[in-house]
Each structure stands twice: as C-alpha cells, then as structure tokens.
TrEMBL record:
Pathway: Lipid metabolism; fatty acid biosynthesis
Lineage of source species: Eukaryota, Metazoa, Chordata, Craniata, Vertebrata
EC main group: lyase
Cellular component GO terms, alphabetical: endoplasmic reticulum membrane
Domain CS per the UniProt entry, residue ranges: 2-91
Pfam families: CS, PTPLA
Coiled coil: 110-137
Gene source species: Champsocephalus esox
Family membership noted in the UniProt record: Belongs to the very long-chain fatty acids dehydratase HACD family.
BP terms from Gene Ontology: fatty acid elongation; sphingolipid biosynthetic process; very long-chain fatty acid biosynthetic process
Protein name listed in UniProt: Very-long-chain (3R)-3-hydroxyacyl-CoA dehydratase
EC number: 4.2.1.134
Amino acid sequence: MPLTPLVYWAQRHEDIYLRVELTDAQDIDVHVHENFLQFKAQGHGAKGQNEYEFSLEFLSPVKPEVIHRSTQRQVSITVKKGQHGWWERLTLKERKPVFLAPDFDRWLDESDAEMEIREKEEKKNRLKASRHKEEEGFISLKTAFLFVYNLVQFLGFSWIFVNMTVRLFIFGQDSLYDTFHTISDVMFFCQILAAVEVLNAAFGVVHSGVIPSLIQVVGRNFVLFIIFGSLEEMHNRPVVFFVFYLWSAIEIVRYPFYMLGCFNTEWKTLTWLRYTIWIPLYPLGVLAEAVAVIQSIPIFDETKLFSIPLPKALGTSISFSFVLYIYLVLMFLGLLINFRHLYKQRKRRFRTKKRKAN
C-alpha cells in the first residue's frame, strides 16, 4: 500500500491552499484534471523516508494550472478554483479523507475571507490613487516647467523681434550696423537657454528628436559665440541683423505653439504658421549664417584667432578658417537633415488633421 502524507488545507474565494507535511521532498509530481488532484513525491514524512502519494476529488472543478513550492519542512500547493466562490467542504464526498485536516494557520471563515478581499481591494485602490496622484503631480510639474520655459523664450525673442522692427522703421539702414550692441545680450540669454531643449529631448521630457534639436542649438551658438561674439570686426556687419531677425521671426511663432500645446489647446492659424513659416525662413536663416561664416574667414586668417599651433619643426599653424570651411559643409548637411525632419512633422500633422476631419 502506498504511504499517504498528512495534508492540511484552507481556502479563499479564488484559491485552494494545500500544505503537505514532507521534509526534503524530491521528485515532486503534482497534476490536476477537472476536479481531481494527484500528488507523488519522495521525502521524509510520518512513516520516515519513503515515497508518498495521495489524490483528492474536489467539490467542484478547478483550473489545470497548479503552483507548488517545496521547502525543507513542507510542500505548499496552490490550486485555482474553476469559478469564484466559497466551498462548504473541500472534497466531493462529505466524509473527508483521514489524512486531511484544516490548516488553522491560514484558515478563515467565509465572512473573514470576504473582509480580506475588501481590505486587499481597498489597499489596491489606495495604491492606485497614490500612483495616480504622483503621476498627476509629475505631469502638472512638467507642464508648468515647459510652459514657463516656452513663455520666457517667447518673451525674449518677441523683445528682439519688436525691438529690431521698431529700430528699422525709426533709423532705417543705420539700424543694420548696431544690431549686435543693442540686441546681443538678450540673444545670448535665449540661445544659452535653448540648450534645455536638447536635454528635454534626451531625457524624454518632450517627444522630440535629439539630433534635430542638437543641430539647431549647436549651429546657432557656434555662429553667435564664435563668429559674432569673438570677432569685434563682425559686430557692425549688417549680416548680424539678418541672422538675428530670421531667428526671432521663427521663434515668435514656435514658442506660443508649444505654450498652447502644454494645455492640449490649439489655435488653427498658429498651427498652420508653426508648420509652414519655416519653409522660407529656415533656409534663409542658414544662408545668412553661411554669409556670416564666409565674412569671418579673412578676419580669422588675419588675426590668427583660434589657430591650431603645430610643432616648431614645421614652423607654422593651421588657421581656424580651415575649421570654418568644414563647418560650412556640415551646416548644409544639417540643413538637409532638419528640413527633412520638419517636412515629415508638417506632413504628419496635417495628414492627421485631415483624417480627423473625415
């Protein structure tokens, strides 16, 4: 006759828990079919080290998936009920097997089990509400940060655009020659702050490509700090006016669009301008930057500023103008990359709007 281990049981509305008194159990075989469970294992039980087995015919069908875990002291088995509910007993026969007993460590009455379910649901709801509140707090904090950033940039570039426009009407051509002295401080601030856009894209604060943002920010700051900022001879050139004016003309449309986007709000005219005005202005801006770089090359050659010294045996140095020639090539490659990126954005945006309209 096969040896039978001691088995303790308890239940919940969804699960049956069995605890088999076998220490150091090995070769455990547990499987379920409909409402029958069969167990077989090698271990140390009430009759010493032997092979033990038992079978149970449950009161109702159960799911075939069985979870079992063996420790040095016992084998724990979890069986899922076929239907959610409370059983009046474990086995189909009213008379329970002699090896079966209640597991008082896990035993609960039906009312206690229902209370346990309610407590779990309340805990789950509290946790869900807490996470939702944290997400809302993060979203509101992120929205506030993005709105303030875009607002500051909009105010900065608006001041530049309006100031330059008013000076152009009042002073005419003379305003073209002192743009750097009157505007550069605010432009320095705005362009340094624009580095935040690269970080936002890199860390996923906004859903935007890192490369297009990096190309624009690095390109503009190169022109602003290296070409204009480091060469006093460039300060009075009219090209400064055109570069600053084209930059600000693009940004006074772009940043208000982002501000409204923080609150899922759209103004159709502004949306159209955001995805259209760059078509003429962006290439013109790059062209103005290229003119500024070309005008600076003779100055760098003459002043030897940023020249790269070579060993004394060669007796010369590499002029920074060589770097500028390479930069001109990269500038137009960047133009193609960003133009393609902006065109895809525009196509995607208006194609989506057409679908919604249909």
